[in-house]
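Below is how a single chain appears once it has passed through the pipeline. First comes the sequence as given, then the structure the pipeline wrote out for it. We keep one example in the README because the format questions we get most often are answered faster by looking than by reading.
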Amino acid sequence: MRRITLSALLVCFALATVPLQADPPKADPARAAIERLGKEFTEAFARGDFPAVARMYAEDAIAFPPDGDMVRGRAAIEALWKGASDTGVKSLEFNVVDVVSSGNLAAETGTAVLHAQPAGQAETTANVKYVVVWKKKGGTWQLYRDIWNAMPGAAAPAAPAQAMTPEMAMPPPTVTPTPPHHQ
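Resulting structure:
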């Protein structure tokens, strides 16, 4: 009887030390590389290096700007981002929410803040949500499909036009003046 009691106590102790919740999910191994590439993207955009931005896309990439036509291929995507800059978008900040990969494909979801200052106007920001499908080629992740649109509550974008224009590259900024100490 004493042996059964001791065994029962050991089993109860073992069960009491087992965590009741499962371990948190491990980060996808592609996440660190994709976050690094996002930083490289924002740096290239901020310095106006649109060829470098375009090289981050696969040759057969497609971008899906808000309320615009699909933009296919690196040259057109380079023009898209240059057009965004020409309309006053000065910088981007990405917040990666999730990355899930399988083989040579990865899906990234997140939010971004676009800082814009059209000529003669105060700086504004636009908050967007995005999904990017990445494709690994030659050991390097490349943007393969890129879609974004305004967060709920943002100003409504202009009516769609027949052809893609640079103004359609980004949703219109939400008017949020930057405090003077940030300028």
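The first helix runs from residue 2 to 16.

See the next section for the split statistics.
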